[in-house]
Amino acid sequence: MHATRRYWITIGLVAVLTVATVLTARPLVGLGAALIGAVLLAYQYIFIHALARTVEGLTVEIFTGRDSILTDETTTVILRVADHVGSPLALAVEARPPVGARLTGTRDVSLGADETDHEAQTEFEVTWPVTGTFEFDRPQLAVADRYGLFEEQLPIDARSSPTVTVEPHRPQEMHVGSGGERIGAAYGEHEAMAIGSGLEPDVLREYTTGDSAARIDWKTTARMNSAYVREYETDTDRETVILMDTRESMTAGPPGETKLDYARQVGIALADNAHEFNDPLGLYVVTDEGLATRFKPAANRHQYITIKERIRDLEGVTEADPASPGRTQAAARRATNQLTDQSPFARRLRPFLEEQTTRIQQIDHDPLVRTIRSHIRPLQGAIWTAIVTDDTNRAELQEAVSLARRGNDHVMVFLAPSVLFESGGLSDVAGAYDRYLEFEEFRRQLSRMHRVTVFEMGPGDRLETILTSGARLYRDRTRQPQSSTP
Amino acid sequence: MSTDHTTTESTTAADETVTESDSETDDATTETTAANGTANRDTELSAPSVSTQRSQQIQLIGLLGLGIVAAGFWLVAEWIGLLAVVIIGLTWYVLSSAYAVAIGHAMFLPVASRSLILEPAVLVAELGLIILLLAPAITTGAPERFIGAFLVSLIGLSGLAAGAYWWSDRLWIGAAVLIGVLGLAGYGLYRYEQVRLGLVDTETETESESESAAGRIDSESTHTEDPI
C-alpha cells in the first residue's frame, strides 16, 4: 500500500492539532486530531477490504493468435479484464510479456471507479526476436481509492495466459531421405527389435513345445496344415540419444539454409518423436572445441522441453563470424587474456569468460568418436543413437558409427551432403552430380553396416536439380564418345 | 499508458492540483508507450486518476452537518459563533472535510476548557463536524463497514489518549499516545494488507526462495544436463 501526498498532508493536520493541544492545553483540540486520525484509519481499512474483494472478483485473460511462431514474427495479444464485484476502486491491469519480446501498442486496460461497465480489453502486438518457449508473467494490477489517499500495485493471477513457442526459421525445401528419395514415415520412429507378446504383429513361426496355445495363429495353421504362432513386437523403453554436430563445417550454406539449419529441424523432429513415445531422450552436442552439451537420457517433460530448446538454440560458431552471438573457446581465451586490468568491469566479466573456457570439455580431435566412446557407450540398456552431422569427416564418422553399434543397438545417421551446400550455386551441375554420387556411395557404404540406417538431409530443390540435370548431362557425356566412334 | 476514464473536473483548488498532476503523468506515460516498440518493461503502470468531485449526496449530507455545527456554535457564542461556521463552511467547500474539522476545533480554542468533559453545546457542534467528516462514507460502497471502522478507531484513539492524560495528568503524554497509537494502527493495517494479499516480502523468505531456486538448478543439472 502506497500512501499518497494527500494522505500525508492529512496526517500533517493531525500532527498540527496535537501540537496545538499541548501548546494551548485544550484537550478539545486533541479530539479534532482523534477524529481526523480515526477517519484516516477507516479509509485505510475500507481500501484494504475493497482491494481484497477486487482481487477476488477480477478476471484477467490473455490470448494470443498463435502459440507457435517463428522468430521475428508478430502476434496479436488480447488482454481482457472483467470486474465481477463492481469494485469501488479505480484500477488498471497490465499484461507483462516476457523480457525480450518487443511490444507495439498499449498493453494495459483501465476501469474507472465510477464506471458502470466493468469489462474492458485491449489489443497489442508482440514481436518475438528470440527462440525458445516463453510464458507471460503474472499481470500487474494497479488500484487507487476514490479519495486519492491510497494506491497499490500487485501481481494477480490470470485465468488464461499463453505459452508461446518461438522457433527459428525453417529451411523452405526440407529433404530427408536416401538416394534422392524422401522417406515417407516420420524419421525417428523405431522398432523395438525384441520379439515377444506385445501389440504389433511381427513374424510367424512354427509352433514349438512350450509356446502358449493362446499365441497360435489359427488362420495360418489352417492354411499351412501345421501349427503356427504369431510373434508380436514388444513395447520397450528404448533410450534415444541424439548426437548433434555443430562444428564449423556445419555452417556451410546460405543464411537460413545452412547444414545446421537442416540438422536442427531433424534434431527437433527426433526429440518430438521421442517425446511422443515417452522414450528416454538424451542429447550430446559437439562443437569445434569438444563436447559442449551433455544430457543423459531421461524420460520427463522437463528433459524433453529443455532438449528441444537446446536444439533450437544451436548456433554454429566460426572464428570468422564476429557478429555471431556465441564465442569460440579460443576467442574466450583471447578475451580473458586481454582483461589484465583490475577495473570493476574486468573483475565482473572475467569469471564468466573463464567459466566458458572450462565449461567445454576439450577433445583434441575426432570429437564424435571421443563423445561416443566416453559418454554414449557406457550408457546402460538399449540405446538408439541418432547422429546428425555432415560428410566432411568421413573416416571419423565411420569409426563413430562402428562404436555406436554396441550390442544390439541401432544407429541412425542423418548426413548433410556438402555438395548441396556449396557456395556459388550449381554452375557446375555435372561436377556436383559426380560429388553427389560420391556422397551416395559413402552413404551406402555406411548403410551396409549392420543395424545402421543412413539418411541424407538438405535442400530438396537443389538435390532434384542435381539429380535431373546432372543425370542428363552425365548421359550426354557418356553417349558422346560412343557416337564419335566410327 | 493509463487511460483516464474519469472526469478531472473539480470544484476545489486542491482537487484541481491533484487531478492536473495526474493528467500530466498520464500524458507522459502514454507517449512513452506509443513510442516504445522496443522494450516491454520501460513504462510504469499507474491506476487511472480519480475524480475527487463531491457527489450531490455528499454535499447534502455535508450541508446537514454544517447546519448542526452552526446550531452548536450559536449556542456557544451566538453571532461570533456563526462567523466561525462561515469560515468552517468555506474551508470545507474550498479544501476538504478534514481541513474543516481542523479549523472547527481551532475555533473552539477561545471557549474550550482544560477539562475532558464537553459542554452540551460543544457536543452538538462536534456531532455536526463528525457528520461533515463522514459524509463521503456514502460512496465507499460499504458505508456501514466504514462507519464501524471509524467508531472503533475513534473510541480506541481518543480513549487511550484520554486515559493516558487522566492517568498521568500530563497533556503531552496523552498527545504522544494519540500519535503513537495512530501510527501503530496505520502500520498494523499496512501489514495486514500485505499478509492478506500475499505481498509479504521478508528477507528470510527471499533467502529461502533463492536457496530453493538454487536447489532447483542443482537438481536440474543433476538429473538433466550433466556437468562436463
From TrEMBL, chain A:
Signal sequence, start to end: none
UniProt KW Transmembrane keyword: yes
InterPro entries xref list: DUF58
Location of the DUF58 domain: 205-333
Chain spans, region Disordered: 317-338
Residue ranges of the TM segments: 7-25
Domain of life: Archaea
PANTHER family documented for this protein: BLL2464 PROTEIN, SLR2013 PROTEIN
Protein name stated in the entry: DUF58 domain-containing protein
High-level lineage: Archaea, Methanobacteriati, Methanobacteriota, Stenosarchaea group, Halobacteria
Automatic annotation (TrEMBL), chain B:
Organism encoding this protein: Halalkalicoccus paucihalophilus
Positions with biased composition (Polar residues): 36-50
Biased composition (Acidic residues): 17-29
Keywords of the record: Membrane, Transmembrane, Transmembrane helix
Residue ranges, compositional bias (Basic and acidic residues): 217-228
Region annotation (Disordered) ranges: 1-50, 203-228
Protein name per Swiss-Prot or TrEMBL: DUF8163 domain-containing protein
One Pfam family cited in the UniProt record for this chain: DUF8163
Leader peptide range in chain numbering: none
InterPro entries per UniProt: DUF8163
Biased composition (Low complexity): 1-16
Record bears the keyword Membrane: yes
Domain DUF8163: 44-206
Keyword Transmembrane listed: yes
Transmembrane segment boundaries: 58-76, 83-108, 120-139, 146-166, 172-190
